[in-house]
Amino acid sequence: MPAKKPTNIYRSLLRDSLRVTMERKSLWVFGLFAALLSTGGVGEMAAKGWHRLSVARDVFGEIARGTFAGTRTFGTVVRTCLEIAPSQATAIMTGMILIAITLVAVSVASQGAVLSSVGPKPVTDAQAVSAGKKSFWHLLALNVLNKAAHAVLIALSSLPLLLILERASGSSALVAFLTFLVAFPLTVIIAAIFMLASVHVAKTNAHSLDAIQHAVDIFKKHWLAAFELGLILFLCVLAASGAFVMAVSILSIPFIVAVSVAVISSSATAFLVTNLLGAFALLLLVFTFAGATTVFQYAAWVRFYGHATSPIRKTISKTHRVFKGK
Known about the structure:
Distance between the termini: 15 Å
Radius of gyration: 24 Å
Shape: globular
Strand content: under 5%
Largest sheet: none
Oligomer: single chain
């Protein structure tokens, strides 16, 4: 009798993650704030890294040609700031810094709340907030290290662009291409390790450095499955985004009709109220979608972590099953 092949985990993992996401809608609020720093999507982080590399290329090109628009913009901002009274400028800067600190703190705490609440057992909102507070400092350190690692990677990957601008040749272009080729998987690796480490912190309240070491060990054993999960989640969110855009387009038809009626009636009040309600409804839909997709991706990584660390269940990548048959 032939040996039974290990079951592929992705189908049940995604189905269970979707079920939890739809059942625990209160987590969408935490997911929205958590998405300010990380959506949980490894593919999205890699795409953002690629976009930043492209932006760096364009910036370097404009600097080399002396047409960098940022210098003019910066000069305008400086002149505007100099026209403001010192006390007002200090108050504005202080307010902006406090708002940024508050948003970062809420986002990190929300990450802990989501990661601790998407397990098999449902928890109350109060328990989720408490769990987010317990793991706050370690998750904050992980977020700082994650952003710093991505920043260093982008900076190093941008250096060959300077070589092209300094001396354009076939070899410099090849170096830049190879650098981009290496930078993309490195971005995915950093993002995957960050997610696994975040799940470990939320589950065990471990130190951030210990969590990174644990995540690296998991990634070494299941790197192919982690890559596959990141790609699958990216495609799922991409498909969901397309469906969301189509749904918003269909729902916008009544709004267009209402605006047309307000214009025909020549009522400024009706026109203003209709636009305000439409803008509020759109923001509500976008925020709901962002929160739900973030919770879904966090739930998927929590389940992947559970499979990867379980001594009973095996995590077998789809690619491994196709080529090895086991």
